[in-house]
């Protein structure tokens, strides 16, 4: 019969025997063999015994016979590309865990671009044009298929996302405001602003700037969150919108768009005013937690009023009632530390005002400043700068000016230092006075979200877009990015300086204290796992050093293969905290 030529291979032969002393022995041989067919029979021909060779040489022969190309270590491979991967992979893993891609809408080009914009906003906030340049240098663009995205496509995706905003927010609201994680059905709301570049935005207007950019046009936006500060909805308003008007708009949204009932709205004293409370009573189905303004507190503290300093002889908070607030609970609080700080600040402002007013007196007496109008303008600038008009008695004539402090007004204000009164419709069976105070103070979490959105993490400002739809879409993208950041910060708390176990304050009026663990991290700059403690942004920067590299064999035209850099312990731990493996690709 004719022999059919066969292929060569390395065979590993293991023999187990018992030697003369009765001990079991194992003998391993590596044989170079040729396998061929002789008629119907398959036979093996041993060509050489490779056993004396080093293990690495045997494996090289085996790989060569298997058709693999072997290269000399350090000489045969070329790195044709290396892109930052770890940060976008981590943020994308968190987005997948939250179901964000499906939340945005049906799969398609617009959704892929919108998701890429949100992830990019977390990793490297920038203008839309700069973002499309940046993501091309990472693995984000290739893996999501948006590497060739044009500016027009970015704007089209923003318009698409703006059209989906209501549906997305409804799902977020139902998940976080009405779910088991919010048994008290609390909804926190606050307003902020950011300045606008250009002159064409219809929402841009001049108003009170919370960014300190006086004279620049701005927009305002209100953020709705759950009690933990997790963003669930955002609304954009013209830049001259007052806080109460913005609150009215969000209340209508909560009632009509989100169809929520029996919710308790938490807002500061400048937002939920007495007029807004009256509107809430007429709407029905909504409660509130807010605080009284200074004139209302002064009325309660007047002679024979229910708010007297003796209430605070034993504790720093007390519950009172008053017929002007039917159906509401009033929780009066006194913060000694706040009282001391307000007294110090008022004295400093009075002294600064005295210094400037004394200069005007000297100028008037020397004849360098004359005319009641001119003197009044100069005095008004000083009084307005330090906001001390109520604490001075002024006497202005055509050629003289004098002033003195209004000691009665100063004493009246000083008597209320450190006092604030919280008003709420929440019953005592649901919350005790200390819990009411803690609920109002939870507004600090919304303020933290604004810091994250505006500067620390997402960098919303300034606004570069011109059309109303694009401005709203930009703010919505930033809100969704802040939603991702909120969850990432929670997950990565063990790796950052975040306080993981902040203790509940014994005195709700007093400032919050850090836990011992957080103090230890701050002092040693290390975590409990002896990893370097980092800020959130520096952790993202460190994750970006985990690159995906493309390699090929030198002298070959094959496409090559991708290989991740070896992750550091911190990078590995970051993905473990997300409950996700380190992926080679995002999808």
List the helices and strands and how they pair.
Layout: E1 3-4, E2 8-18, E3 24-38, E4 41-49, H1 55-65, E5 77-84, H2 86-97, H3 100-104, H4 109-123, H5 128-135, H6 139-144, H7 151-176, E6 186-195, E7 218-225, E8 231-238, H8 243-257, E9 263-266, H9 274-283, E10 286-291, H10 294-300, E11 317-320, E12 329-334, H11 336-365, H12 372-386, E13 392-396, E14 401-405, H13 407-414, E15 419-424, H14 433-441, H15 443-456, H16 468-491, H17 516-524, H18 536-544, E16 547-553, E17 561-564, H19 569-578
Overview in brief:
The chain is of the alpha+beta class.
Describe the structure.
This protein is of the alpha+beta class and 587 residues long. Among the domains are: 3-62, no CATH class; 184-291 and 431-482, Nucleotidyltransferase, domain 5, CATH 3.30.420.10; 338-414, no CATH class. The protein has helices spanning 55-65, 86-97, 100-104, 109-123, 128-135, 139-144, 151-176, 243-257, 274-283, 294-300, 336-365, 372-386, 407-414, 433-441, 443-456, 468-491, 516-524, 536-544, 569-578; strands at 3-4, 8-18, 24-38, 41-49, 77-84, 186-195, 218-225, 231-238, 263-266, 286-291, 317-320, 329-334, 392-396, 401-405, 419-424, 547-553, 561-564. The chain has an eight-stranded mixed β-sheet, with helices on both faces. Strands 1, 2, 3 and 4 form a four-stranded antiparallel β-sheet that branches. Strand 13 (392-396) and strand 14 (401-405) form a beta hairpin. It is elongated and about 125 Å long.
Q: Which parts are unreliable, with pLDDT below 50 for 5 consecutive residues or more?
A: none
Query: What name goes with the CATH superfamily of the domain at 184-291 and 431-482?
Result: Ribonuclease H-like superfamily/Ribonuclease H
- Strand order of the biggest β-sheet: 8-7-6-9-10-15-12-11
So what's the overall shape? Answer: elongated
Structural class: alpha+beta
Q: Rounded to an integer, what's the Rg over CA atoms?
A: 35 Å
Oligomeric state of this protein: single chain
The number of helical runs is 19
The CATH topology label of the domain at 184-291 and 431-482 is Nucleotidyltransferase, domain 5
Query: Helical residue percent?
Result: 40-55%
Main beta sheet, described? 8 strands, mixed
State the end-to-end CA separation. 55 Å
Average pLDDT level: 91
DSSP strand tally: 17
CATH architecture designation of the domain at 184-291 and 431-482: 2-Layer Sandwich
